[in-house]
Structure formats: structure tokens, C-alpha cells
Amino acid sequence: MRILKDTTPMADGFHMPAEFEPHRGCIMIFPERADSWQYGAYAARKAFVQVAEVISRSEQVTVCAGAAQYDNARAMMPPQIRVVEMSNNDAWARDYAPTFVKRDIDDQRNQGLREAEPGCENNAGVSEIRGIDWGFNAWGGLLDGLYFPWDKDNAMARKLCDLLAVDVYDKRDFILEGGSIHVDGEGTCLVTETCLLSAGRNPDMSREEIEENLRQYLGISTVIWLPCGIYQDETNEHVDNICAFVKPGEVVLAWTEDENDPQYAMSKACLETLEQAVDAKGRKIKVHKLPLPRPVTMTAEECEGLDACWDEPTRRPGERLAASYVNFYIANKHVVMPGFNDPADERAKQILQELFPEREVVQIYARDILIGGGNIHCITQQIPE
Amino acid sequence: MRILKDTTPMADGFHMPAEFEPHRGCIMIFPERADSWQYGAYAARKAFVQVAEVISRSEQVTVCAGAAQYDNARAMMPPQIRVVEMSNNDAWARDYAPTFVKRDIDDQRNQGLREAEPGCENNAGVSEIRGIDWGFNAWGGLLDGLYFPWDKDNAMARKLCDLLAVDVYDKRDFILEGGSIHVDGEGTCLVTETCLLSAGRNPDMSREEIEENLRQYLGISTVIWLPCGIYQDETNEHVDNICAFVKPGEVVLAWTEDENDPQYAMSKACLETLEQAVDAKGRKIKVHKLPLPRPVTMTAEECEGLDACWDEPTRRPGERLAASYVNFYIANKHVVMPGFNDPADERAKQILQELFPEREVVQIYARDILIGGGNIHCITQQIPE
Predict the structure, then answer these.
(1) CATH number, domain at A190?
(2) What's chain A's average pLDDT?
(3) Which segments of B38-77 are extended strands (E)?
(4) The domain containing residue B242 runs over which residues?
(5) pTM of the model
(6) CA distance A100 to A119
(7) What's the mean pLDDT when you consider all of chain B?
(8) What is the model's pLDDT at position A125?
(9) Which of A171, B310, B315, B331 is the most exposed place for a label (fewest CB within 10 A)?
(10) Are A192 and A238 in contact (CB under 8 A)?
């Protein structure tokens, strides 16, 4: 693995493919910390295993486990899933596993971008993809981050590139999580203002400078800024919980018809932005509304099963969680989506099945993932083919 | 990775190839512990890097580093070498990385041994090799083992098979280190009685039961029992420090002409055994004598740079180390051998160069590896192609 500092993916002819393009594999992390996952993470682990198993039907899944949990993870995961030891602070592969970028061989030839790759002869077969190692500060650092320290999480992107024998772009001076971006693979990126302009991430950078980093590292030309995300989403409202590309020019948007729900105005504001937007190819965006489940709130019993973080409880009884069906993972042959035992579960599944006619939509009861603070998209990171 | 318990490599048509057959890669472990490696392992690490670099010219090298040393190992190792995080108690890849066995595709077809491999569809491309996870107890457990605990070392074989996505035979009920066996790839295995019959390993097993385990797991038919190894070799005299195959039917044997050296009688006893031996193919063994360096002993300054282990010093000034040129690694295009700044260095190198005319012999000053208790063969483990 070379650590690349003086160049960017765009300069090297790389771009981030869309999630619906073919994958070579998927990265997950085994959940462990007792202030994220209720009652010692036992229920969460079962849900993670279900997610991994479905993805493993069409992708090579690699699960990273801390040293103390390796044996347990190995015992719980089916044999076709690879378990590797890797230190972590928590289990959000989407946010701190590498963002992968790709350079097509044809592009290389056409654009004459093939460089000498000294010392990397053995990686020749995999040299088409590279990773990006963004800075990670637990969604807001000392200002409004969610735990401390986050050093092991921040080290994972580089370690994963090393493991996969792909070169890595060092962009640790720019704080970004994988869940805060969605791309269409054709030059467009979706983000939220609440997250990318948050005071806890890159407070000294202008919106233009942030856009320029996205362009250079994701190999895109157009950034669509949604104003916000899902109500109470403690990541400063990651885009991957409210809006996702299902194909170039088409997105799903989390939606409620309940005008009394604070989410109503938020989803409506996003819709208005999307209706005004033009993507990198000059297209208008087609928006498919995906219903939200009824508010999901913490029970007293669940709260009792969580260790405290710093000097206060991690969650309080009645606290509303940022439940959304948009937080799904697009695997090679499946779409893995959350369910909440909610009346809207079935309708949301139908909508996604219609939008992904060539993939089987599998719904997994995800309350135990949601309690940790995210959902299926948050705990997975695809490796492009 | 499947964990295989109810079958053996021989039953499945697998056998251990010789080290001089083609490799797909090599495993090493980054040295760390302060009671093994003098003055915080800084000098030892440089030697490990040199060894890894030479091997990486013709093989993919994977270096395992404990969590605290990952960044340092990554910074020291050249970029073509893969560094992965893996807990360890010390750095002896030969002894507790997996022993790999191989099944040729043709053999499979001919012998009709191909089984259904449920759940391992994604591993299809690598299903020809499997690992063996022997029990490891730090060269003698609580009786005469060299450190405690050894749990992390003992877990590495399985983790490495998982990392490489190859199935593993669980043979943890049999204590064996990779350095205590050498095979010719044609049915013959070399061992020493002092090691394999030691009281600290498998005291309840007879010589015949031990032989049967070697036959079943290495896929061999003939075991040649040398009486002993190198004087003062604290592994109970591993075979890999005194005798090694250079091709089927031919070995090198560590040798001294000094009749006053305790090693003289030991090497002579081994020679007599080899002269009487017949290998699996019915051949007599051709023995090439490889000179030993003059006795290498610990200096007071070196001893001061070692932490204590249990309640006594790890090494004492004047203590003789088990220096031997036989402790080399056969890489695809190189033979990596130790040097000791000894007058015999050059002659030993010449002999090996004549025996390996198609490989370049590279000699690395290895005193800092030797102080740890082994040498270049001990810190490497090949992965067959």
C-alpha cells in the first residue's frame, strides 16, 4: 500500500462509483461497545450477522473485530464471511472504512493516465481501485462528537486499504464520514448542509472549499446540498438516512405526511431543493417518496441496558431515534433494508422492490442497530469491483 | 473459512509442499516484546525489514503487527509489503502461523476427492490450499516454555487462515511448531527427537502416535528422526536450525570440525542417522555439511537491554546462542540466510549458492534476530501457491 499525499483521485483519473454498481465485497465491523449497543450488544450482533449473511450471498464480506471479540465474531458469522482482527472504537464501517474510488482500465488507456507504480508490482491485479482515508472525529470531535477517543476508528481506513493491498489517499486533514455523501457515479454528489457545514467538522473551511475537496476526491463535478436530514439524527443529519440514489437521476427521499411531525418540514425542504436541482449530466432529479415509520422511541428497559458515556446516560426513555427506511445497503443481488415492526414496513419494501427490480429486497428487523445510532447503510461499506 | 475437525489433510488429498516449491506469499510478525528483543526491538526490527524486503522481491509478504505497533510497522516496511493488525505474544511466524497444505487440481480429479464445499463459493479460487492450526504452548508450556501466556500466538494460525480465506484444520490438541518439521514435498518429514518427544509438548503420546499425526496432517509416509539439534537451542532443538532439505533426497546439516565443541557430537549423531535413512521414495539422503560460525555469545551490554522474564534475566552475559546458517528461508527467487560477521559467513553463502543455482542467496546480518532466540527461518512462514 502506498500512502498518496501529493495528488488527488481526480488528478489520477479516479472517481467514486455509485453503490448500485458492481461490488467486489463489503466491509463491516463487529459491534462491541456497551454505551452504544444495549445489554452488551448481543441483540445487535444478531442483527449484524443477519445483514452480513444476506450480503455474503453475492459479495465477499469482511468483518473487522476487536481482539477481544475475534473468536466470538468468528463463531457467530457464517464460514463464507471473513473475520479479521482490527481495533475499533465502534462499528460504523460506512463512516470510517475507506471511501473507494475506481479508475477504469479503458479510461487509463484513453487518457494516458497510467503511471509507473514503483514497489507495487504485486498489487497490479487490484490497482484499479484506491481508498480515501478521510479524517474522522466521531461526528463532531470535542464540540459535538459522540464519543472519545476515536483514534482506532480513524486508523481503520488506512488499515483496511493495507489489508486489501490497495493504495490510499491521505486526506485526514478533511473531516468526512462515508454516510455524509451519496454519489450517482456520473458526477453528482448529495450531501446535507447540517452535516458538512457543521461546526464540529471543518469549521475553518468555506462551503466552496468543501465542495472543491468533494470534487477532487470523489471525482465529481456537481454537489447537491440538501438543507437537512432526519430529525434527531445525531450525526448532524447524514444524507444516507434521508436520501439515496437508486439510479442516476433518481433518488428516494424519506417522507411523512404528518404535518405535526418536525420531520415534515425537513423532508419538504429537501424535496424543494431536489426539485430545483440539476445533476452533473444536466438532468432533473426524479424523487420517489419513501414513507417513514411511526416515531421509534427508546424504552426505559433499553436505556437501562446501556452504559453511560461521559457523565450522562447515552439515551433517555422516550427519546426519539432517527428511524428511516432510506438507510439500506445495495448489494450485488440484494437490497438489505431495515424494518421496524411498523405498518409502513411492507409499503417501504414494495417501493424499493419496484425501484430495484433486478435485486431481491430483504428486510431485517433493525431496532437493535437503530439504538446504536444508525442503520444498515451505516454499518456497511462497499468495495467496488 | 471453515474450521475442519472431523477429517485430516491426508484424508482430503492434501499434503505439505516443500519450501523450495513455488510460494504465493510469506507471513512475518513484527517484533515487539522487550524480553525477547534487546533495547526495545529497534535493531531487530531493522533486520526484520531487511528480510521482508528481500522476500518481497518475489513474493507477497504480509507482516502482522500488534495494535500498538501497526503504525510503526507500516512506516518501516516498504509499500509493497502488506501490514495487518494481529495480536501476538512474539514474532515467530514459523512456529505459529499456519502450516499450509495443498491439493493439486489434477490430484483432485484423479482421486475423485473433490467434495461439496457448502458456504465457501467465494473461496473457490483459493480452495486448493488449507491451513493447519496446531496447538502452540511457547515451546514447552508450563514445563519448559519460554514465556507466558501464549494465547495470542496460539490464536494466530486460525486468524491468518481467516485473513487468507482458506479453510483450516483444527489440530490444537497436538502441540507442534512449524520449525520442528521440514518436508521434502515427496512424502518425507525430518524432525528431532529432543523436540517432538519433549516432556513439555505431547507427553501422553507415544512416538508412534506422534508419527501418525505427522502422516495424517502433513500427508507424508516417512518420518526421519534426528536425535538432536543445535546446542543450547531453547526450542528443544528444532530441526530447522540444524538440517534442511534443499531438494528431495538432499539436505544441508550444520557442522563443526571442532571436536571440543559440544555441537560436534550432536551434528555427528545427526549425520549417522541421515546416513542410515531412506526417504519416502526409497532414496538414500545426500548430506551437504554447512559450517557453523564460531560460538556467538551474549555481551553484558546486550543483556542489559533485555527486560526480565518472570523473575530472572532472559539472558546472561557469555550465554551461547544457537547460531546456525541452516536457519534460512527459501523464497521464490532468493535464499535469505543469516550472517554473523564470522569468517565462515562467506563459505556458508557459497555452499548455499551452489545448492540453489537458480536463486540469489542474500545474507543478512542476523545477530539481532538470533538474540531473540531464532533466525530467519523462524520468523517466516511460506504460503504455497
Answers:
(1) 3.75.10.10
(2) 94
(3) 60-65
(4) 3-384
(5) 0.93
(6) 21
(7) 94
(8) 44
(9) B310
(10) yes
A1: which chain B residues are within 8 Å (Cβ-Cβ)? 74, 79, 82-83
CB within 8 Å of chain A, chain B residues 263-282: none
Sign of the alpha-carbon dihedral angle for B306, B294, B329, B177 = negative
Alpha-carbon span B169 to B217, nearest angstrom = 9
* Residue pLDDT, tens place only, A50-65: 999 999 999 999 999 9
Q: Does B384 sit behind a cis peptide bond, omega within 30 degrees of 0 on the bond before it?
A: no
Amino acid letter, residue B355: L
Q: What is the pLDDT of residue B118?
A: 39
Q: Residue A42: is its pLDDT beyond 90? A: yes
Q: Say if residues B168 and B1 touch (Cβ distance below 8 Å).
A: yes
Dihedral Cα A258, A260, A264, A268, nearest 10 deg: 100
Alpha-carbon distance of B385 to B48, in angstroms, equals 23
Residue whose C-alpha cell reads 471479540 in the numeric block = A69
Long-range contacts of B45-49, Cβ-Cβ distance < 8 Å, separation of 24 or more: B45/B72, B45/B73, B45/B76, B46/B76, B46/B368, B47/B364, B47/B365, B47/B366, B47/B368, B47/B369, B48/B91, B48/B369, B48/B379, B49/B76, B49/B77, B49/B78
- Chain B residue numbers touching A122 (CB-CB < 8 A): 56, 60, 80
What is the number of alpha carbons within 13 Å of residue B314 lying toward its C-beta?
23
Rounded Cα–Cα distance for residues A159 and A178 (Å): 16
Per-residue pLDDT reduced to its tens digit, B15-70: 999 999 999 999 999 999 999 999 999 999 999 999 999 999 999 999 999 999 99
In this predicted structure, the answer to whether residue B120 has a pLDDT above a threshold of 70 is no
Q: Determine whether the interchain pair A79/B122 forms a contact, defined as Cβ–Cβ distance below 8 Å.
A: no
**Whole-angstrom distance, CA of residue B325 vs CA of residue B63:** 23
CA angle B204, B209, B212 (to 5 degrees): 150
- Tell me the per-residue pLDDT of A90-142, one tens digit each, with 9 for 90 and over: 999 999 999 999 998 755 544 544 444 434 334 444 449 999 999 999 999 99
Count of the separate structural domains present in chain B:
1
Give chain A positions within 8 Å (CB) of B80: 119-123
Closest by Cα among A368, A326, A340 to A237: A326
pLDDT score recorded for residue A108 = 52
Q: How far apart are CA B86 and CA A159, in angstroms?
A: 11
DSSP H or E stretch at residue A194 = helix A193-196
Cα distances from A238 to residues A199, A242, A369, B166, B175, in angstroms, run: 14, 7, 16, 38, 52
The residues, any chain, with a CB within 8 Å of residue B10's CB and separated by 6 or more, are B215, B216, B217, B219
- Out of A67, A84, A162, name the one closest to residue B74 (CB): A162
Exposed e or buried b per residue across A259-280, where buried means at least 16 C-beta atoms within 10 angstroms of its C-beta: eebebbebbeebbebbeebebb
> How many A×B Cβ pairs under 8 Å?
72
Task: Give bridge partners of residue A134 from the DSSP assignment.
Answer: A171
- Return d(Cα A329, Cα A244) in angstroms, integer: 10
Judging by beta carbons within 10 Å of its beta carbon (0-12, 13-18, 19+), is residue B249 exposed, middle or buried? Answer: middle
